[in-house]
Amino acid sequence: MRYRRSEFRYAAVIKTGQVWLHADAWPSDRLRLLVQGRWAPDADLFETAATVEIVIDLAGVGEDDFEIELFADALVIEGRRRLAVGDDTTIYHVAGVRQGPFRLEVGLPAAVDPDRVEARYDRGLVRITLGKRGASR
Predict the structure, then answer these.
(1) How many domains does the chain have?
(2) 75: Cβ–Cβ under 8 A, 6 or more apart, which residues?
(3) Position 46 in a domain
(4) Residue 137 within any structural domain of the chain
(5) Distance CA 98, CA 31 (A)
(6) Which of 36, 59, 76, 99 would bridge 124 by S-S if both were Cys, CB 3.0 to 4.6 A apart?
(7) How confident is the model at residue 70, as a pLDDT?
(8) d(C-alpha 39, C-alpha 63), whole Å
(9) What domain range is 57 assigned to?
(10) Alpha helices in 2-114 (DSSP H)
(11) DSSP readout, 103-117?
(12) What is the spatial distance between Cα 133 and Cα 113, in angstroms, rounded to a whole number?
């Protein structure tokens, strides 16, 4: 897990259309369907009197496979989940576990102190605690 912070406000970029990088690398359309474009992991966002808390479900994602970037008004978590995909003889009957690149953009409900950030990764869940600006520890 890598962490960066920025003093700038966050601006969302909306893309239109899906572009498949290395589209010829996938031997079949069935395998291509398993690797989706960017997706967003599930997350909870809540606040207390002194903190803003974010919990993100990143089961199956290695700690070195994602990064967290803190902006003045948003938190962005970006990375990639890589799961084993069978060979050409494998027949998937259900493919519900998302994989490939992901990006989660979370708007912050309060101003936070960039020097009071704590992130823990345990059993597939990332818990980020952001101290509110002006709140006592």
Answers:
(1) 1
(2) 54, 68, 69, 105, 106, 108, 128, 130
(3) yes
(4) no
(5) 13
(6) 59
(7) 93
(8) 18
(9) 2-132
(10) 29-34
(11) EEEEE-SS-EEEEEE
(12) 5
pLDDT of 16 > 60? The answer is: no
Query: What are the structure tokens assigned to 24, written together?
Result: 């010829």
Q: Assign 54 a pLDDT band (cuts: 50, 70, 90).
A: very high
Please tell me whether residue 30 adopts helix, strand or coil conformation.
helix
| Res 7: pLDDT | 72
- Tell me if 70 is assigned to some domain: yes
Q: Which two tokens stand for residue 51?
A: 């903190």
Would you state the structure tokens that stand for residue 108, as one six-digit string? 């912050």
Identify the CA nearest to 39 among candidates 56, 54, 22, 23.
56
Instruction: Write down the number of H helices and E strands in the chain.
Output: 1, 8
d(CA 19, CA 6): 29
Given pLDDT bands bounded at 50, 70 and 90, which one contains residue 84?
A: confident
Mean pLDDT for the chain overall = 82
Overall average pLDDT of the 77-89 stretch: 86
Confidence of residue 113 (pLDDT cuts 50, 70, 90): very high
Q: Does residue 99 form part of some domain?
A: yes
Output the domain CATH number for residue 80.
2.60.40.790
Query: And the tokens for 62?
Result: 């290695």
